[in-house]
Every structure is written in structure tokens, then in C-alpha cells.
């Protein structure tokens, strides 16, 4: 198995505050590397794993499912947690759903969440037929690289494995059901114009989590993959400030 250049996992050892960074369904660590590096530059211990089936070939992704991505996120969380006293989890799109899953499972151990255009629901009416379509065609048209900034790509596959997509959508339902279990401080950053995930996904999260005073920031000059788009510096700045805020003087058993 050959990993595409730039899609390799990223790790940086730093202080006693750990930050787990999770990429989305159509992407790989390429879409998150600048964000992870910006956080690491502040001295934090950062882990950016590559989810199974991503960053290699679309044929690899065809055999992976929501449970595989959750397992990788969970493993990366515990590996990082063993090195530090406090962990903040950051995620883009499906990575946001995975971050929420960790916060639902380990409310006492997740010190904060930073979600960028998090996906817990997709409103595309064509997906109603997906339970049948997935058995008729192995791949669907791509939705990746939704970036406003010219010449920038997240290195997405040229097509979407239909069974993997169906699995992710089913996984989102479980995330939504358990949103009230999320008690970690929350910074949610979304693009006003997003051609992949609707604003209703973020609204649903904000309406159901039990986080104290969740903060929402709306980006005006980016599309879905905002971590590589025009507003990326804002994401980096605001998330670094948030991480400092929620981890200051915090210790976790």
C-alpha cells in the first residue's frame, strides 16, 4: 500500500497539552496538515492520523466503513492521551463527527472540541436512494475539493465509494443521537457558503450538545475545505486561542 505524497500522518511532540486533528471523508491529512503544523508551532503535542482507506487509492476506501474510521480515531486519541494530561480534539467535516464521537465516549477526557464545517447530516435529496444505489454502482461522482481559493486542492479521490458513503451517513445518525452527551467546551467554525455540508448540520450540533456556551464563527471567504481556503489563518488563530483557553490550568486524571 502506497500513501500519496502529503497524505502521511503527522505527529509533533510538545508540551503536556495534546491536540488530535481529524480529517474528513473525501480528504486525507493533506487537508489538515497546515492546521496541525500551526498548532504544533505553539508548542503543543499534535497528532494527525490518516484514516483507513484515505490517502492511498479509492479502491482501498471502498472496503472501509464508519467503524474503521472511529476505531482509528479512538486509537489515536488514546495514544495521544497516554503522552499528555489534556486533549483537545479538532475535526473537519466527517472528522468533526469523529471528534464528537470521542467527546460522547470520553466526556471527562476531552478538554475541548474545535469543529470546522462538521458533518452530521447531509441534505442532498439524491441520497434517499443510496441504500439501493450502493448495490447497483460501486462509485458515485466526487464532491471533494470544495475550495474557493484558486489553485488549491485537498487531494480528494475522483469518485466516492458508495458503500463507504452509506456507512458514514449511518454513522452520523448515532452521533446525533448521542450529542447531549457532549459536555466539552465547543468552538464551531463554519463557512457561510459550503457546497458539501449544509448549515443545518452545524445548527443541529449546537442545538443538542450540552457544552457550556458553545461558540460559533462564520467564515465569509471559504467553502467546505476551509482549512486550506482563504479563511484558514482565522481558523488557526481562533483555534489556538481556544486551545489555550480551555486547557489553561486544567489537569485530567
Automatic annotation (TrEMBL):
Keywords: Hydrolase
Native species: Spongisporangium articulatum
A GO molecular-function annotation: hydrolase activity
SUPFAM superfamilies, per database record: alpha/beta-Hydrolases
Protein name: Alpha/beta hydrolase
Domain Serine aminopeptidase S33 stretches: 19-229
Amino acid at each position: 500500500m502506497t500513501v500519496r505524497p502529503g497524505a502521511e500522518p503527522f505527529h509533533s511532540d510538545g508540551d503536556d497539552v495534546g491536540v488530535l486533528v481529524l480529517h474528513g471523508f473525501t480528504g486525507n491529512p493533506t487537508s489538515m496538515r497546515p492546521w496541525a503544523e500551526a498548532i504544533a508551532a505553539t508548542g503543543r503535542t499534535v497528532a494527525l492520523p490518516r484514516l483507513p482507506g484515505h490517502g492511498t487509492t479509492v479502491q482501498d476506501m471502498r472496503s472501509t466503513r464508519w467503524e474503521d474510521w472511529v476505531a482509528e480515531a479512538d486509537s489515536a486519541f488514546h495514544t495521544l492521551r497516554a503522552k499528555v494530561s489534556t486533549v483537545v480534539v479538532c475535526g473537519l467535516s466527517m472528522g468533526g463527527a469523529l471528534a464528537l464521537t470521542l467527546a460522547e465516549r470520553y466526556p471527562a477526557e476531552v478538554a475541548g472540541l474545535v469543529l470546522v464545517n462538521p458533518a452530521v447530516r447531509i441534505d442532498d435529496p439524491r441520497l434517499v436512494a443510496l441504500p439501493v444505489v450502493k448495490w447497483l454502482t460501486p462509485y458515485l461522482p466526487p464532491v471533494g475539493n470544495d475550495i474557493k481559493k484558486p489553485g488549491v486542492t485537498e487531494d480528494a479521490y475522483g469518485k466516492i465509494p458508495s458503500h463507504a458513503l452509506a456507512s458514514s451517513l449511518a454513522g452520523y445518525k448515532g452521533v446525533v443521537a448521542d450529542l447531549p452527551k457532549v459536555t466539552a467546551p465547543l468552538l464551531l467554525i463554519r463557512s457561510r457558503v459550503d457546497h458539501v455540508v449544509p448549515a443545518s448540520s452545524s445548527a443541529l450540533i449546537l442545538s443538542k450538545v450540552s457544552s457550556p456556551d458553545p461558540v460559533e464563527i462564520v467564515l465569509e471567504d471559504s467553502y467546505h475545505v476551509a482549512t486550506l481556503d482563504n479563511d484558514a489563518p482565522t481558523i488557526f488563530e481562533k483555534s489556538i486561542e481556544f486551545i489555550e483557553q480551555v486547557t489553561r490550568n486544567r489537569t485530567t486524571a
